[in-house]
């Protein structure tokens, strides 16, 4: 690497977890290589080997304090198969769905209001001292938005508490079902507030749409590229965040595969290991690693589904798809718009579930005959989440494979970093605004970097550019 | 008085803070004086690099800026002695520290006055 300068951004800020970006420049300041490194090691597939299968939905969610519900439910879905249950009771399924929609709501709200809104409201070049959620809250123009963000997140967290028993690392889902129904008190208090939550979701979506449309000249190409998209969809083509069949489309909308059962995921998906990252690089098997990588998450889900089964969100989906004339939207920054359509969808779904008598039912658990293997797939806030387990005759987990949402977006995030580096850094002066643009492109994916290990303290961000001899050429700190 | 135990700080904890004039964050401390210390907190003007890393000061800052909270924030750090990952019991020393901190906080709350003990008890 002699003759090259290295820029390191560590940690990447306002994402969930700890990541690092390195950019290699030649002596003329031209970008030679970019990489998003995931520097945390998860290892949960190994930790849970030998544990009894019924512990897994509670154990495995410990890999994260931000999206534990998604892992809790994906593991429970896999263990449903292990205990021979293909269909939950009505109350079991609806309680799990309520938990899941609460999770997606709170996660998306946290991401948009707390991590992303400062970039959109103050601009990518704004002073980092105010470009944060406290800055948003203190600005009279946006303080109401910040309050709505906190309270939307709180509502989702309260739903999780009521369905899972705890806001973080709950125990509600068990193999074959759920361990309680919704109490009458919880049902009443959630119903009292749900129309307000729908209203705030509509308002926030309107703000994001207005921002995106008014900045489309810059955003359309910002970190953007054509890509494949993958998610589960319901058998009739509807968006379904909790259950469905795998579908992948290409950048023009052509179907690559469709109606693939979760158990057959390994027939269509492969994972590549690269030595510089703990995070694997999944790809569509039929296309290979070079062209088979794909995006997951809100943007992909809006692109892959045929419709949304709640009226307000469906109207918004149609408006969103019109951005690209009905074809897949490949604008990276449109992730935020898509994410807020999902917030609206979740609030509508929560309203419907709260009005459903089954949510108070007493038939909680289904039973069946033990099987040696189970796969559970759902759409976590950040994208498609795969849990696959094999269980031996002693009821111990023998094999576990997890493909977490952010892993699916590994190559797209690297592509986004490279695109922004080429557009804004190549041959140009290193500035704080340029560095933030790289982070903005990563934030669009809302990566969750499997972190719970940095729970206290603030890590300073210092970026140094060194020449080939190791001398500091340029230094920017926050 | 309201007590909540949590796995980590979340932004919505600001709403809870805003309902209370005095907030005390209690946690084990890896460093600092034994058996415990009490320190006044100021609301933060900034945030950490991730929501995984919210500090008590950030939660207070959100409570002030989102909900107009004007109360007092304190941290009560109870000095731990051993943080071995596979041992769940407290050491006898840590048990004593916990008891001293509990007695101090109970008396302070009963009297309605929270001030750092001076000199710090040994």
Annotated CATH architecture of the largest domain in chain A: Orthogonal Bundle
Please mark out the parts of chain B with pLDDT under 50 across 5 or more consecutive residues, or reply none: none
Using the alpha-carbon principal axes, give the shape of chain B: globular
Taken in chain order, the helices and strands of chain B follow as: HEEHEH
CATH class of chain B: Alpha Beta
Describe the structure.
The complex is a heterodimer of chains A (478) and B (122). Chain A is α+β, with helices and mostly antiparallel strands and 478 residues long. Chain A has helices at 44-47, 56-59, 68-82, 90-122, 133-138, 143-164, 184-214, 216-219, 265-268, 288-291, 298-304, 311-321, 334-354, 405-408, 410-424, 432-443; strands spanning 4-9, 16-17, 19-26, 31-38, 173-174, 177-178, 228-233, 245-249, 255-260, 269-272, 281-284, 294-295, 373-380, 383-391, 397-403, 448-449, 462-466, 472-477. In chain A, helix 4 packs antiparallel against helix 13 (334-354), helix 7 (184-214) packs antiparallel against helix 13 (334-354) and helix 11 crosses helix 13. Chain A is globular, with a radius of gyration of 22 Å. Chain B has a single domain (13-111), classed as 3-Layer(aba) Sandwich (Rossmann fold), CATH 3.40.50.1450. Chain B has helices at 13-18, 56-67, 92-111, and strands at 22-29, 36-41, 72-79. The radius of gyration of chain B is 15 Å and the shape is globular. Chain A binds chain B through residues 11-18, 65-66, 110, 114-115, 129, 132-134, 137-138, 143, 146-147, 149-151, 153-154, 157, 166-169, 451-452, 454-459, 461, and chain B through 6-8, 10-12, 14-15, 44-53, 55, 58, 61-62, 65-67.
């Amino acid at each position: 690497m002699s003759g090259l300068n290295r820029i390191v951004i560590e940690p990447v800020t306002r994402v969930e977890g700890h990541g690092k970006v390195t950019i290699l420049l030649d002596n003329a300041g031209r970008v030679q290589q970019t990489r998003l490194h995931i520097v945390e090691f998860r290892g949960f597939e190994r930790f849970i080997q030998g544990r009894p299968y019924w512990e897994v939905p509670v154990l495995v969610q410990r890999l994260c304090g931000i999206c534990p519900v998604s892992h809790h439910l994906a593991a429970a879905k896999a263990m449903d198969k292990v205990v021979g249950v293909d269909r939950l009771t009505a109350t079991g399924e609806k309680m799990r769905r309520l938990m899941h929609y609460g999770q997606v709501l709170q996660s998306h709200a946290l991401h948009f209001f707390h991590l992303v809104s400062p970039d959109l409201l103050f601009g990518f070049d704004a002073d980092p001292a105010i470009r944060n959620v406290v800055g948003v809250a203190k600005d009279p123009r946006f303080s109401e938005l910040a309050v709505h963000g906190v309270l939307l997140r709180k509502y989702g967290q309260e739903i999780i508490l009521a369905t899972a028993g705890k806001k973080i690392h709950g125990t509600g889902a068990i193999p074959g079902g759920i361990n309680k129904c919704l109490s009458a008190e919880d049902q009443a208090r959630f119903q009292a507030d749900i129309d307000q939550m729908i209203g705030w979701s509509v308002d926030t979506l309107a703000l994001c749409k207005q921002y995106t449309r008014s900045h489309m000249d810059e955003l359309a190409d910002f970190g953007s590229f054509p890509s494949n998209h993958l998610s589960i969809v319901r058998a009739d083509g509807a968006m379904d965040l909790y259950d469905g069949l795998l579908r992948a489309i290409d950048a023009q909308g052509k179907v690559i595969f469709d109606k693939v059962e979760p158990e057959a995921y390994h027939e269509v998906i492969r994972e590549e290991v690269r030595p510089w990252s703990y995070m694997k690089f999944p790809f569509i098997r039929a296309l290979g690693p070079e062209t088979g990588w794909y995006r997951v998450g809100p943007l992909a889900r809006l692109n892959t589904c045929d419709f949304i089964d709640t009226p307000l969100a469906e109207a918004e989906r149609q408006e969103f798809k019109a951005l690209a004339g009905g074809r897949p939207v490949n604008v990276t920054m449109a992730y935020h718009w898509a994410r807020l359509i999902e917030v609206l969808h979740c609030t509508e779904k929560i309203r419907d579930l709260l009005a459903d008598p089954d949510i108070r039912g007493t038939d909680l658990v289904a039973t069946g005959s033990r099987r040696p293997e189970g796969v559970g797939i759902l759409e976590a806030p950040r994208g498609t989440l795969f849990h696959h387990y094999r269980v031996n005759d002693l009821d111990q987990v023998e094999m576990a494979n997890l493909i977490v949402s952010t892993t699916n977006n590994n190559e797209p995030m690297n592509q986004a970093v490279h695109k922004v580096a080429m557009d804004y850094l190549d041959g140009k002066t290193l500035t704080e605004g340029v560095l933030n643009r790289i982070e903005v492109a990563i934030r669009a994916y809302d990566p969750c970097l499997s972190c719970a290990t940095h729970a206290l303290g603030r890590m300073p961000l210092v970026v140094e550019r060194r020449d080939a001899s190791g001398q500091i050429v340029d230094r920017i700190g926050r | 008085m309201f007590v909540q135990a949590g796995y980590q700080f979340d932004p919505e904890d600001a709403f809870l803070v805003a309902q209370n004039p005095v907030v005390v964050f209690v946690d084990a401390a890896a460093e600092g004086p034994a058996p415990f210390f009490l320190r006044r907190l100021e609301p933060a003007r900034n945030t950490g690099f991730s929501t995984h890393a919210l500090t008590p000061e950030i939660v207070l800052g959100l409570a002030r800026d989102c909900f107009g909270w004007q109360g007092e924030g304190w941290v009560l750090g109870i000095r731990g002695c051993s943080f071995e990952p596979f041992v769940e019991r407290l050491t006898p020393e840590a048990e004593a520290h916990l008891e001293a901190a509990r007695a101090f906080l109970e008396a302070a709350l009963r009297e309605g006055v929270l001030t750092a003990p001076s000199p710090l008890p040994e």
